[in-house]
Amino acid sequence: MAEGLRSELTRVLDFEKEARKKLSDFAWHFFSRRRDAGQTYQDNLDAFKRYRLIPCNLRDVSIRDTTVTVLGTRLDFPIAIAPTAMQRLAHPDAELATAKGAAAMNTGMVLSSWANLSLEEVAEATPRGVRWFYLLFFKDRRLTRHMLDRAQRAGYTAVVLTVDQPSFSFSRHEKPNLPPVPVRYPNAYYAGDPVGLVGTVEVEEHLRATVKVPGTWEDVEWVRKNTELPVVLKGILSVEDAKTAVQLGVDAVYVSNHGGRQMDGLPATIDVLPDIVRAVGGKAEVYLDGGIRTGTDVLKALALGARCVFIGRPVLWGLAHNGAEGVQQVLQILKDELSVAMARAGCAKISDIQPSLVVHQSYYGITTRKAVPMSKY
Ligand SMILES: Cc1cc2nc3c(=O)[nH]c(=O)nc-3n(C[C@H](O)[C@H](O)[C@H](O)COP(=O)(O)O)c2cc1C
Ligand SMILES: CCCCCCC(=O)C(=O)O
């Protein structure tokens, strides 16, 4: 671990415990939230353990190179930050701290449209960072275009469209998921007010009127044709969707089940990854998130065809623990663990990580059945 980042917390899950101590009840429950019984959330974690690693020994792995190129940009390691809403709930520096932590590690960050700071504020604080922007679908396409232009002008280098949210928690049939205190969403608001929205009722009304749910393939096509930025589709789980995405010319397919927050009963992302990689057939980059907590999780995802993985909650735990430095610590732990795992697996560089490194436990006749705990959330 880099000097200055020494900590008693040596594993990513240590940060979860620390975050619990620091976060308000609302923030803790919002971040931990999982849909219904939490089966998908839990399966994201358990599924990684169902894959076994078969190392190749006696190779020279004394020097490891974890660098990777993602959408043409070089990252020091293939672990980046997934978009997560409302980071002010974790730390007063909110998305600024996350961006600084990512930039310090030379990896990428996706800024959420539900960020509490404007995309320009985040960009100004980390001019050399690698930043992508998660864009909402808006009913008014002039607003979509306005946000695309803002993101590009501020130096964001890709647009991420989240396609697994055909409804939001603020839709009428669900309990609102908005914080009890006034918040700013300067990237979700229009009408030229730079402060953004405050107040729960106002937010809900505005969002119902403005945000287009569900987005459709037509919206994806429109965005692709109306921006020079590469387009990433986040939330793909089916082969059919992956094929359509490729046909529409998207640049990357991002396998995600929204960390189990959107719908329960979905498969673990690592389990669907090989089929998606096959369907994409090298015509777009493939990413994955959901349940990544260790370097061996990352190694398995890369072996099964992901070019890069993203982490959601672990970053929020690091942020809650210690702002930008906490985010950096979480990333450093995963980077170090990946490097060690690569050495033990016989891989000196990322391209040495091949599918033959991973075998599903069913190959050995092992069929673990684990009870799914009922969620407390
Ligand atoms: C508190 C929270 C807020 C999130 N907000 C967004 C969001 O604004 N947009 C989005 O596409 N995904 C959002 N996600 C999903 C993450 O991008 C990611 O898919 C998920 O957290 C990955 O699982 P992990 O937390 O196990 O790493 C959110 C997740 C959490 C935990
Ligand atoms: C009104 C704000 C809704 C934010 C939804 C963010 C999200 O994707 C999540 O999983 O939470």
From TrEMBL:
Keywords: Flavoprotein, FMN, Oxidoreductase. Glyoxylate binds at residue 261. It comes from the Eukaryota. FMN binds at residues 83-85, 112, 162, 234, 256, 258, 289-293, 312-313. The keyword Oxidoreductase applies. Residues 4-363 form the FMN hydroxy acid dehydrogenase domain. This is (S)-2-hydroxy-acid oxidase. It holds the Pfam family FMN_dh. Its EC number is 1.1.3.15. PANTHER family: 2-HYDROXYACID OXIDASE 2, S -2-HYDROXY-ACID OXIDASE-RELATED. Belongs to the FMN-dependent alpha-hydroxy acid dehydrogenase family. The active site is at 258 (proton acceptor). One of its GO terms (biological process) is fatty acid alpha-oxidation. The keyword Transit peptide does not apply. GO terms for molecular function: (S)-2-hydroxy-acid oxidase activity; FMN binding. It catalyses: 2-hydroxyoctanoate + O2 = 2-oxooctanoate + H2O2; a (2S)-2-hydroxycarboxylate + O2 = a 2-oxocarboxylate + H2O2. It is an enzyme of class 1 (oxidoreductase). GO terms for cellular component: peroxisomal matrix. Its cofactor is FMN.
